UniProtKB/TrEMBL annotation:
Gene source species: Streptomyces hoynatensis
Source domain of life: Bacteria
Region called Disordered, residue ranges: 122-145
GO molecular function, one term: DNA binding
A Pfam family that the UniProt record links to this protein: HxlR
Keyword terms of this UniProt record: DNA-binding, Transcription, Transcription regulation
Name of the protein in question: Transcriptional regulator
Gene3D superfamilies: Winged helix-like DNA-binding domain superfamily/Winged helix DNA-binding domain
Domain HTH hxlR-type: residue ranges: 17-118
InterPro entries, per database record: HTH_HxlR, WH-like_DNA-bd_sf, WH_DNA-bd_sf
Ranges of compositional bias, category Pro residues: 136-145
Length: 145
């Protein structure tokens, strides 16, 4: 990488900037969880099956796709032992470790504010601002009236 490439900075507001695609990749819940799980193990490696256990809810395919993308972006190193079946190990690169801080701050913000965000999802009549008892719904009219 040349000095000018290293110093080049993206512009999120430019429709042609690859920063948008990068944010789409690193902004997923699976990438955030993988970075956290791998950072907790750093500098040690984590085998695929162990990483999957540390990420409840992730499917084998989704974890594979996520890790492949992270390897391609230079965030993760992949090492394969030539055993039967092959043992595949992953660990964060320096670049991947540098992503842990910002993602950690975002995860912390989300966990701290989740209840408040969920309150905003309530229908208007269920919000705390509508204090006081609600009127009971009227019973249905008898049939044939």
């Amino acid at each position: 990488m040349t000095g000018s490439e290293r110093g080049r900075r993206g512009d999120l507001f430019s429709p042609w900037c690859p920063t948008r695609e990068l944010l789409d990749r690193i902004g997923t819940k699976w990438t955030s969880m993988a970075v956290k799980a791998l950072a907790e193990a750093a500098p040690a490696e984590v085998r695929f099956a162990e990483l999957r256990r540390r990420m409840p809810g992730v499917s084998q395919k989704m974890l594979s796709v996520t890790l492949r993308s992270m390897v391609r972006d230079g965030l993760v190193e992949r090492r394969v032992e030539p055993t039967v079946p092959p043992a595949v190990h992953y660990r964060l690169t320096g670049l991947g470790l540098s992503l842990e801080g910002p993602l950690s701050a975002l995860r912390d913000w989300a966990e701290t504010h989740m209840a408040e965000i969920e309150r905003h999802h309530l229908p208007a009549e269920d919000t705390p601002a509508q204090a006081g008892p609600r009127a009971a719904p009227e019973p249905p009219a008898p049939a044939g009236t």
